[in-house]
Structures are given as C-alpha cells and as structure tokens.
C-alpha cells in the first residue's frame, strides 16, 4: 500500500450541484403537500412503509390530499434496504394505472423506491434493466419526496439503491431523471423516530458529510461532466458540507438529551439535507463501499455500518487529506491557532468520532457482529463497488481494506499509517 496523493486541489474552481426544482424545508411544511400535489394533477400514488402507514401523521396526510379532491392510492409495503421484489410488486399492483405524481413518505428505502417506481410505472420493465449510471434516459412520473428519518439525504439525490437477492448485492440506479421534482422536508416528521433509527440516520448523515468533504476533487472536463454524475468534491458541495457539519456539531447531543426537541431535530434534518446535496455530486467513498458487504453478512443498519467504519477509513485517508481533516476540526471548533496541521487534522477526526458516539453509533466492527472469517469476502465485494472506491481520496486495494477491517475489528484507533 502506498500513501500516494491523489488530486486534492479543485484547480477548476468548479461548482456543481443537482437538486430538486423546489425544496420546502421547515417544521409543519408537510401541510403544503396537497397544494404541491395538485400542481401536478389529481391522481397520486403515495408510497411508504408499514411503520409510517400506521402513524397518525401519515393518515392525516392522506386525509388532507383526499380533502383537496386528489385521488390517492397508497402502497405501504416498502421494506428496509429496498429489495427488488418490492418493485416487481408495485408494477403488478399498479402497472395499469396512470398517476400524475408519485409521493414517497418515509426513510431512504421508501424515497429510493418512489424514484424507481416513477420509471417503472411510466415505462414498464424491470429495475434490472436500469442498474448503473445514466442508464435511465427519460423522465418518469414526477416525484415528491417527504423524508421522515433525517439521515440518508435521499430526498434530494438522484440515485436509488436496490437489493438484488439473486445477485446477493445492492446495486445503484443513478440518473438525473431520478431527481425528485420537489422535496418537502418537515422535521416534525422525525419527532417519533426511535433512538436506534436516530442513531443510524445521524451516523449516515455525518459519514456523508465527511466522505464528500474529504473525497476526490476530480477536475472533470466537459465530457466527464456530461457522462458522469459523481464528478468530485467542489466549491458548492464543500459549502453544504461545512454547514452540515456545523449543524451536527450541536444537534446530536441535543437530540439524544431530548428526542422531542424540535429545534435539535430541525438542525439534524438540515444536516442530512446538506449531506444529501453534497453526495449528489461528490458521491460517497470508502466507508460506503466496505459497509455494503458487511451489511449483507451481519444484517446491520447501513448508517451504523458506515459510522462504525468511519474512524478507520478516516485514519487510512488521513495522509492524503491533512488539510481537509484540519478544516473539519476548525468547523467543529476543536482546533487552536499555532497547532500543526497534523494535530488539527487528528482533532477533527477525534471530534467526528465523539459525535458518532454521542448519537449512539458503535465505533468498532465487532459490535456489528463481523468476524475475521468474513474479512476476505468483505474486501473482495467492497472493491467491486468501483463507483464508490473511485471517490476514495487514497487508493483502496485489497490489503488496504483488510487493514481497515483489522483495525476496525480490534477498535485500534491509534494513528496507524497502513
Ligand atoms: Fe449512506
């Protein structure tokens, strides 16, 4: 393994974000949903999961829509990690129907489901035909996202991640045509989030912020900007990362101390939104590549997995991203003038770990149930996720992933330089 330095400098002074046409953010803003839906037409498919379908808030939304004269169908069978079967099922249930708009009300899987259902209900077919980057080439049914967990950022991203059981892995469908037309982000919807879900989504958002801010600046040419969605960290993704980090810095402790603290929930949701805005162009990196096979082996939540990996991925990346980690330390208020860049970078990493701990994320891989006999499998699978490994600032090879897993298993947070 070499500590080779990959491109760090945004030589083009590039700024690029993709986002919904309209974003409506704030406590109580879900009440704007009927007006938002009516702008598209009077036939809506509302997608959600079992937990949310039984929630009074969801029933109120359905009532408000029907009260406005909108014909609403509900699909409430979306499962965690979005199995491909859910998408086959919705085509079977609603394939003959015409909808003016599809609304996703839920966590990341529900919102990802709505984005793919928009394509399949408009054009038919199987999600398998859409796997990959820019395979989807035309608009589907307009999508409105209403997130309820405050973590994944899926409300603003133009990617869906689907679990394909036959292939034994998660696969992305990424295209600007999956971009929601509108995101309605109402922190009141997260007030009933149980602590485990708050921990997982908080850890996911924080990991997005760190991976996007420390990712590669790719200095893409015109052709690369046209051909690829993930063109690297840039001036605009950095702006979202800085604000998101500022928000999590105090929000996590306040949410844990009082889960009903609406201002703290609002700050956490703003952080998740900012993180989503950043990864929609910068992409995620090493922790996300390695989590996917660990999740498949241990059946642990995505957010807890990426969070548990983050301390070790940050340490591995540190030699190539001293300035960026030092800047994270500055934003999080743990650096002092006159300290070396190494000291400031290490302080930034330690503060990120403190925040993960505060929100309730495990900081080692043993806690996820991963055992050393799974390391080879995890490393091989992680390296197949080239969309993610290509974003990692320091080159990831098999030895590097195995080293991250070893250190993560033994909770070794010394300043190792693999
Ligand atoms: Fe994530």
Radius of gyration: 20 Å
Number of strands: 9
Describe the largest sheet. 6 strands, parallel
Reading off the top of the CATH hierarchy, the class of the largest domain is best stated as: Mainly Alpha
Number of helices: 16
Q: For the residues shown, what is the average pLDDT?
A: 95
Runs with pLDDT <50, length 5+? 1-5
Indicate the proportion of strand residues: 5-15%
Element pattern in H and E:
EHEHHEHEHEEEEEHHHHHHHHHHH
Distance between the termini: 7 Å
Sum up the structure in keywords.
alpha/beta, Dehydroquinate synthase-like, alpha domain, 6-stranded parallel β-sheet, Rossmann fold, 2 domains, binds fe (ii) ion, 418 residues
Task: Walk me through the structure.
The protein is of the alpha/beta class. Helix content is 49%, strand content 10%. The protein has two domains: 29-185, Rossmann fold; 195-409, Dehydroquinate synthase-like - alpha domain (Dehydroquinate synthase-like, alpha domain, Up-down Bundle), CATH 1.20.1090.10. The strands form two sheets. A six-stranded parallel sheet has the order 1-9-6-4-2-3, with helices on both faces. Strands 5-8-7 form a three-stranded mixed sheet. Fe (ii) ion (FE2) binds next to helix 6 and helix 11.
Helix and strand arrangement:
Blueprint: E1 22-25, H1 33-38, E2 43-47, H2 50-53, H3 56-67, E3 71-75, H4 84-94, E4 101-106, H5 108-123, E5 132-133, E6 143-147, E7 159-164, E8 169-174, E9 182-185, H6 195-214, H7 222-227, H8 235-257, H9 262-282, H10 286-298, H11 302-317, H12 322-331, H13 341-359, H14 375-384, H15 386-389, H16 398-409
Parallel strand pairs: 1-9, 2-3, 2-4, 4-6, 5-8, 6-9
Antiparallel strand pairs: 7-8
Helix pairs in contact: 4-5, 6-8, 6-9, 6-11, 6-13, 8-9, 10-11, 10-14, 11-13, 11-16, 12-13, 14-16
Bound molecules: fe (ii) ion.
